[in-house]
Design a protein that fits this description.
The structure is a homodimer. By secondary structure, chain A is of the alpha/beta class. Chain A folds into two domains: about 240 residues, Aldehyde Dehydrogenase, Chain A, domain 1 (3-Layer(aba) Sandwich); about 160 residues, Aldehyde Dehydrogenase, Chain A, domain 2, CATH 3.40.309.10. Chain A contains 16 helices and 16 strands. Chain A has a seven-stranded parallel beta sheet with strand order 10-9-11-8-7-12-13. In chain A, helix 2 crosses helix 7. Chain A is globular and about 70 Å long. The N and C termini of chain A lie far apart (about 55 Å). Chains A and B meet through strand 2, helix 10, helix 16, strand 13 and strand 16 of A and strand 2, helix 10, helix 16, strand 13 and strand 16 of B. Strand 13 of chain A pairs parallel with strand 16 of chain B, so a sheet runs across the interface.
């Protein structure tokens, strides 16, 4: 790494840290006004933004990127509108910062409580999706953090244009311009250096492929909010309502195939399996879902016509730990709820798991014993989402166990500190 | 590392993880009964415990350890009593596990809330202080975690005896015996292996010297709750009540000299400095505190008799970032509250800082802008302590910014998960 690069990393870090200090007493009004001005600026400059984006698209096309990539890279009027409606939603969310909780008098006479505070400097590393630039910048602004954005290099023109507008509205509202920064150069070694810069950066949020996230988590000297696998389960208990079980299974698997909260393994209680599996398997296969099933399931599915019964393959050990992210579902018959919980604990990824049952005791047992970020009763796994949970915004979904777990909204971008209000008290 | 060691590490990890699964639905009653039985067992076996401890002491004396070390290693009747009263206190604390918060209906009809859950497997690494064995084991048990204890090798006989009693009461209460394990061998390479074992261990809490904690944090592949520096400040504002300012400064510095929440740097607003500094400096020096002061302070202290005025040395840049942990105090005169906050932000360790002021606006500004684990108004920094904060128990003090910050009690040993209660809802 050459000297210029080192200087650049240092400058980004120091600028961000200084801006964070100034952000610490930014008022809710100031922050909301900046968000509202940003929406206005995006509207007024939409032509400029789209023009900059077209430069990125042209280059990406020349470089031979595929259609899906170009699609994610594209800013059209619809993307502009969705950026702006995201900003409106964020303005309407309560400001988490400064909230004081549990302020209680202690025997010594001091009042002790907690105050919610921004985390500090957040580094967000993401792919060439320029809509994330506004999303992430706005979430960090509202939560009082300073952010360093490192989007995919193919979106650099678009991002530069967008961040220019961010800086403009920060300035206009007497907020530090460097509260939102973009990594200007595209040299990958910069990321390697930034994720080690623990003196200046407090948190890393990588968004993208699993290998990128794993690499960052391994190399970083700073806490990382990470999202790894989503091997989600539905367990159909023998006390399940069969209509609910069918609807929820179909919805969890097929409402969208490639999201992290999509169902990957269906567990069915042995006692009920003959009643539900033939019909359910048929419905799934008619919806084009490939089934990989345990021996017992295969036996039951034999009841179906040859066309379908022969289509269900026998699952291998590998299937239970695979996140297909496509139209494949593994199915296993288990003896009871305890076996289901054991299977989830062994093969699951602690993301999202749901039980279908009308039995209160078993519902509570599942809630208690399944150690996942989201545990559900009689609901589709597809609900594991910041908007569905009422967070109003989402910076990502975390598979960490500490700090932020599951869908991460504004509060996940904050921490707390203890506050002590005294009147001259000393310790005796 | 030989094969036996590797097997041992694996066994510890797998045992702990399996125990944790069983702990997930341990009832409050079960856990409290185990704690109560443990107190009883410690009482009944106090002679055995003290005998085992005497073996450790003899060896440590033979190995030439100093008196302070032996003192920390010793279990006498007083230590036994204090272990038992700690257990009683813990039994009386509410169980954090299973607590459901913010359960709210969302537009889709699902109810979404959070449930407090244990973290999983906790590795605690500490020095040869066998009282920590019971403290840590009991806190982890009450919070539903499985714990692997790695105390200093000089206390191995004592710890083995104590953990034997822990396992006995776990078994008696139908709880998994491996929820509390001790690292049996004293080979240091085991620690190096354990702190990388992220498949089985969820959290590391090192207690001990800074170099040990830094090394573990650097090498670990698992989150670490760490305690680094405690460079604590008191800022005497120009709107301070001088009696409160004097009492709080003296108490923060001298009530105990070597604790992490002891005052290390005193900041005084210039406007009030001539009124308070001469008297305060004299009182401090009479209490045997060595002063290292800025030029302006030195000028003011000149008013004192030669004996005292000459004793105050000029501080160097190094003093502002030193945690003395002894009878030394650095003093700096600052222009105003903003300069004080800037100094704290530049030189502090984000541990504990207190402002002395009667001005409400400045008190609030300090609370908001000082980015430390504990921020105080008109109170001694010595209050930064789990018991003083009403936590009822303390596993340590964290200087982390995420998850647990400041004094860490039972709740710091837990995390949350999302729970979703539906009635057949699917996403549309």
């Amino acid at each position: 790494m050459n000297k210029d690069m080192k200087l650049l990393v240092k400058k980004l870090g120091v600028n961000a840290k200084n801006s964070f200090s100034q952000m610490l007493d930014a008022s809710t009004l100031q922050k909301n006004q900046a968000l509202s001005d940003l929406s206005e600026e995006i509207y007024k400059n939409s032509e400029r933004i789209i023009l900059a984006n077209e430069m990125d698209i042209l280059q990406a096309e020349r470089d031979g990127f595929d259609e899906a990539f170009i699609d994610r890279l594209t800013i059209d009027q619809k993307v502009i509108d969705s950026m702006r409606s995201g900003l409106s939603a964020l303005i309407n969310l309560p400001d988490p910062v400064g909230k004081i909780d549990d302020l209680r008098e202690q025997p010594s006479g001091i009042m002790v409580g907690s105050m919610r505070v921004p985390i500090g400097v957040v580094l967000i590393i993401y792919e060439s999706r320029p809509n994330v630039t506004i999303d992430a910048a706005a979430l960090c602004l509202k939560s009082g953090n300073a952010v360093i954005l490192r989007g995919g290099s193919e979106s650099l023109n678009s991002n530069t244009e967008l961040v220019k507008l961010c800086k403009k509205v920060l300035k206009k509202n007497a907020l530090p311009q460097n509260a939102i920064q973009i990594v200007p150069k595209t040299d990958r070694s910069i990321v390697g250096k930034l994720i080690e810069y623990s003196e200046m950066i407090d948190l890393i949020i990588p968004r993208g492929g699993k290998s990128l996230i794993e690499k960052i988590s391994k190399d970083a000297l700073i806490p990382v909010i990470k999202h790894l696998d989503g091997i989600c389960h539905v367990y159909i208990d023998d006390d399940a309502d069969l209509v609910k079980a069918t609807n929820i299974t179909l919805n969890s698997k097929t409402q969208r195939l490639a999201t992290c909260n999509t169902l990957e393994t269906l567990l069915i209680s042995e006692k009920i399996s003959k009643r539900i599996l033939p019909k359910l398997a048929l419905m799934l296969m008619k919806k084009n879902v490939e089934l990989r099933v345990c021996e017992k399931s295969k036996e039951i599915i034999k009841a179906l016509s040859f066309e379908y019964s022969s289509a269900a393959k026998i699952a291998t050990a590998r299937d239970w730990k695979t996140e297909y992210l496509s139209n494949i579902l593994s199915i296993k018959i288990v003896t009871n709820i305890e076996a289901a919980i054991k299977h989830i604990s062994k093969y699951g990824s602690q993301h999202t798991d749901s039980i279908i049952t009308e039995n209160h005791h078993k519902a509570m047992l599942f809630l208690r014993k399944v150690d996942s970020a989201s545990v559900m009763v009689n609901a589709s796994t597809r609900f594991a989402d910041g908007f569905q949970y009422g967070l109003g915004a989402e910076i990502g979904i975390s598979t960490n166990k500490l700090h932020a777990r599951g869908p991460v909204g504004l509060e996940g971008l904050t921490s707390v500190k203890w506050i002590v209000l005294g009147n001259g008290q000393i310790r005796v």
